[in-house]
Each structure stands twice: as C-alpha cells, then as structure tokens.
Amino acid sequence: MVNSTSLKDEFLVDGYSVIKNAFSPQEVQLLLSQTEKALASKKNEEDFLRINDSKHIHKIRYMFEKG
Domains in the chain: how many in total? Predict the structure, then answer.
C-alpha cells in the first residue's frame, strides 16, 4: 500500500491554514499577471528579494500596493 499525502495535508503539517476558495479565479489570474509583469520589468530588478553571499536577506519590495 502506498502512503500518499495531499498538498493540503502537507500545508497543514507545516502550520499553514487552508481556506477553500479564499481567492476567486479572477483574483488568482490578476495576481499571476501582475507578478509576471513586475518580475519582467527592468525598473524593478533591484527592488526584489535579494540574498547576499552569506545567505541573508538583503532587500524586500512589496509587489502589490496595500489598500
């Protein structure tokens, strides 16, 4: 018998909450689209998460405006 766990079970074990339908399909598509645009933009390349040679976080930028 193969013992398999679902992605939901893995998230729960890791301490995450799983909320079904927390985002609509349209919201997910908008987040994906905006993330792709932000990552592709040259003007943002210095603003995203950077990890230095000693593996410490150097800088974080919020991709989405807080509203």
Answer: 1
